[in-house]
Amino acid sequence: MAEFDEDSVKVPFGTKHLDAAMCFPASETDVDTAVILTHGAGGDMNFKHLVSLARALASNGFLCFRFTCKGLNLGYKVKAYRAVWDFLKSLQKFTIKQIFVGGRSMGCRAAAALARQLSEESEDALQGVICLSFPLHPPALMNAHLQRSEDLRGLPDHLSVLCVSGTEDIMCDRVLFEGIVKEMKAKVDVFWVKGANHGLRVKGRSEDSVLDEVNSQVITWLTKQLA
């Protein structure tokens, strides 16, 4: 028997629609925790890392809603993310009580920006943020780290944040990032994947083994937040 089901969804966004996919446990109807994910500057919601994580989440009792937004403007992507959050809140199929937002690279910058925006409106809007390969700066351009981390540093102390990055990520200098983490008011957990680059690939390891490690970290962290 399948551990999860997946439905294709069209999310209203102004005069357009966003392509999305909803992955959820096959045998449960009382799912109350959802995770929204989106992709980075390239690719779409079918990027292997997002699909792998979505299915792992659904197999462990969570609803995962991932979507495609091709716009490279961060503000546009945040508006799209807000539309998805609104859509998820209106779902009749499940009674969602907790929502976590996240994404990969630029997608997690958008998630952090949305989380900051929503938390200023209500403390109960979100429970946390999941950042996969946060793009702290362009390659070799370290001086962008303060501007790019502004929303992360602006998250309030009632939110929890998980950051998963590779130790060899040329867009996330480890020393700089750990300095940013010390400045954050939110509760932060950081998991460094040894030897991984920005795409979370590790020489000498299969992609699936790395994804299993990342997925396990995310699920363990989420379970801890809900305990």
Task: Provide a count of the helices.
Answer: 7
Counting structural domains, the number is 1
Q: Structural class, judged by helices and strands?
A: alpha/beta
The second-level CATH architecture is 3-Layer(aba) Sandwich
Number of strand elements: 8
Biggest β-sheet description: 8 strands, mixed
Q: What overall form do the CA principal axes indicate?
A: globular
Q: How far is it from the N-terminal to the C-terminal residue, by CA? A: 28 Å
Q: Unreliable runs, pLDDT <50, ≥5 residues?
A: none
Rounded average pLDDT: 95
What is the level 1 CATH name? Alpha Beta
Rg, please? 16 Å
The CATH topology corresponds to: Rossmann fold
| Oligomeric description of these chains | single chain
With strands numbered from the N-terminus, the spatial order across the biggest sheet is: 1-2-4-3-5-6-7-8
Beta-strand content: 25-35%
What's the helical proportion of residues? 25-40%
Model description:
The chain is globular and about 45 Å long. The chain has a single domain, classed as Alpha/Beta hydrolase fold, catalytic domain (Rossmann fold). Helix 1 crosses helix 7 and helix 2 crosses helix 3. The longest helix has 20 residues. The protein starts with a strand and ends with a helix. It has seven helices and eight strands. 44% of the residues are buried. The mean pLDDT is 95. The protein has an eight-stranded mixed sheet, sandwiched between helices. With 227 residues, it is of the alpha/beta class. InterPro entries: AB_hydrolase_fold (IPR029058), KANL3/Tex30_Abhydrolase (IPR046879), NSL3/Tex30 (IPR026555). It comes from Gasterosteus aculeatus aculeatus.
